[in-house]
Design brief:
The protein is an all-alpha fold and 304 residues long. The protein has helices spanning 2-17, 21-38, 40-45, 60-78, 87-109, 112-115, 118-132, 139-163, 169-181, 183-189, 199-226, 238-248, 255-274. It folds into 2 domains: 22-248, no CATH class; 256-304, no CATH class. It contains 13 helices and no strands.
Length: 304
């Protein structure tokens, strides 16, 4: 048994030591293809439009499979030895691992689908905005894609309710505001894509839109009913924050360094504010100073 274990260890060591950059590129390519299909709304926003009629699958089975896939791939990439690789190939390996660390951090480490109600409101908002932000296809093509996505939103929001086993109060409050305050995206902006639809296609779009907006409002009402019982937001803690800085963002700082930089910037801006003739001009409130271009009786205020 010892001999067998030694042989297996030696084989794994040799495999890692002899790993070729082409293998990393293959893994990265497969991951990006999988990610594009797995997160179609993000893909649309980044300019890929093969999956414009889809929403992300947030079913418990899909969330579990996604988490396992990222974790397994991250372990595989970590095990690859880059010794002897060119500088560019080693940088590619570092950047790819950081991307996987970030995905793992949100999906498994922070349990985003279980704690953050914004996840599902953002999915709806970005699903439509990603089709509007660029004229990459005809209005009809994008209008039909929007219709398909809208039709899936009520079911996705119901799945979100199931997933949210420990929603955080702050995130819920922000999600409520977004769900109730974003109707114009669907009732105004979206309808600019309806001018090339047939009468039946437009009718289908309007029906899907109304059902989606209704589902968003119901989702907000559901959150509102339970928000008082939700736990308050808690900071992630210094250890987790250091992991984020070092392994995901690849910054040469730890939490204390960032705090020090913040204190330096705060002091610098307070010094700049001291140079102002009127310290109130430093306030971001647009009503801080009356506009001099108006008459003394004018009630308007400057906007800067």
């Amino acid at each position: 048994m010892k001999a067998v274990l030694l042989l297996i260890g030696a084989a794994l060591s040799m495999s890692n030591a002899n790993a070729d950059p082409a293998e990393l590129r293959r893994l990265a390519h497969e991951y990006y293809e999988w990610r594009d299909a797995d997160s179609p709304v993000i893909t649309s926003g980044q300019g890929g439009h093969r999956y414009d009629d889809r929403l992300t699958d947030y079913s418990p089975q899909a969330v579990s499979a996604r988490r396992a896939h990222i974790s397994e791939l991250l372990s595989k990439v970590k095990a690859i030895s880059t010794e002897g690789w060119s500088r560019d190939d080693r940088v590619d390996a570092i950047l790819f691992q950081a991307q996987l660390e970030g995905a793992d951090f949100l999906d498994r480490g922070r349990e985003q689908t279980a704690t953050d109600p914004q996840t599902y409101v953002n999915e709806c908002t970005n699903a439509i905005f990603g089709l509007l932000q660029k004229d990459y296809a005809s209005h009809r093509t994008r209008g039909l894609a929007a219709t398909a996505r809208l039709e899936k939103m009520p079911a996705m929001l119901r799945t979100g309710r199931t997933n949210l086993t420990k929603p955080v109060k702050l995130y819920a409050q922000l999600a409520i505001q977004a769900a109730r305050g974003g109707d114009e995206l669907y009732t105004n902006s979206l309808m600019t894509l309806a001018d090339e639809l047939s009468a039946s296609e437009r009718k289908r779009l309007v029906k899907a839109r109304d059902n989606a907006v209704k589902a968003l409002h119901e989702y907000a009402d559901w959150l509102d009913a339970g928000v008082a019982r939700m736990p308050d937001w808690q900071p992630m803690g210094e250890e987790t924050y250091n992991h984020l800085l070092k392994r995901v963002l690849l910054l040469p700082f730890d939490a204390r360094d960032v705090a020090t930089l913040g204190e330096i910037e705060l002091g610098r801006y307070r010094a700049l504010e001291a140079l102002l003739k009127d310290p109130r001009l430093a306030s971001p409130d647009p009503s801080r100073a009356r506009c001099r271009s108006h008459t003394p009786r004018c009630t308007s205020y400057c906007s800067w």
